[in-house]
Specification:
The structure is a single chain. By secondary structure, this protein is of the alpha/beta class. It has a single domain, classed as Spore Coat Polysaccharide Biosynthesis Protein SpsA, Chain A (Alpha-Beta Complex), CATH 3.90.550. Helices cover 34% and strands 21% of the residues. The strands form two sheets. The chain has a seven-stranded mixed β-sheet. Strands 5-11-7-8 form a four-stranded mixed β-sheet. It starts with a strand and ends with a helix. The relative contact order is 0.17.
Length: 230
């Protein structure tokens, strides 16, 4: 049985979905699942996903929404539809190195007690995964550090049973729902594992939520920190 499900929320991602599908298809893992949740796209990105042919060891599933939904609602649909022991959210404009899932699988075998596995990530301003503008490295995990900054993005690996035990992503958030989930895990004493390998890159673009509405982002971050600080 496959160990990991990639959860992909798709909405009008035609500009980069072709690359995304190739990054997924190039993974050196022996087998994994990918679940696409299409949030009522109006471009041709859903058609591209449907027409793509993955390698035989990759199990893909597409869930089509009948109305526009937010990213955390889409992620919740994907988590509930998954049948693997681990979940990884991976956005359509980000990029994974070929060894990403294989690296996570090795860490799963090394540390069965880890409820969330995360590590450093590259930041790129072009669509070239090797053209890093910077490398985000995190300090060692502690709840106090996590209350200062979200140190587990952008594609942590989380045990599915965590969602069964503490609930799903808070859909009232626009940009900090993943931070809220991880903060809740930390407050409830789940096990965090920081790894040294960089498995992928975050695409810095001007029209992203984090750049477009910084007041909203900061407001949501403060809301999380106030709720979960000691």
């Amino acid at each position: 049985m496959n160990k990991i499900s990639i959860i992909c929320s798709n909405y009008n991602s035609s500009l980069w979905i072709d690359e995304y599908l190739q990054f997924v298809n190039n993974q050196t893992s022996n087998g994994f699942d990918i679940i696409f949740i299409d949030a009522y796209s109006t471009d041709d990105s859903l058609k591209k996903i449907k027409n793509f042919r993955f390698k035989s060891h990759i199990r893909s599933k597409i869930i089509e929404c009948k109305n526009r939904i937010g990213i955390y609602a889409a992620w919740n649909i994907g988590v509930k539809a998954s049948v693997t022991d681990y979940i990884m959210n991976y956005n359509t404009d980000d990029m994974l190195f070929d060894y990403a899932l294989e690296t996570y699988e090795k860490w799963i075998d090394k540390d069965r007690n880890a409820d969330i596995i995360f590590g450093p990530y590259g930041m790129v301003k072009t669509r070239n995964i090797n053209d890093l503008s910077s490398l985000a490295k995190w300090p060692d995990y502690s709840h106090d550090v996590l209350m200062y900054e979200y140190m587990c993005g952008p594609f942590p690996l989380i045990k599915k049973k965590v969602f069964d035990e503490i609930g799903y992503f808070d859909e009232s958030f626009i940009s900090a729902g993943d931070y809220e989930m991880v903060a809740k895990m930390s407050k409830m004493k789940y096990n965090f594992r920081k790894i040294t390998q960089c498995i992928g890159c975050f695409y810095e673009r001007d029209d992203s939520i984090s750049n477009k509405d910084k007041n909203l982002v900061n407001s949501e971050i403060q809301k999380v920190q106030q709720k979960y600080k000691k």
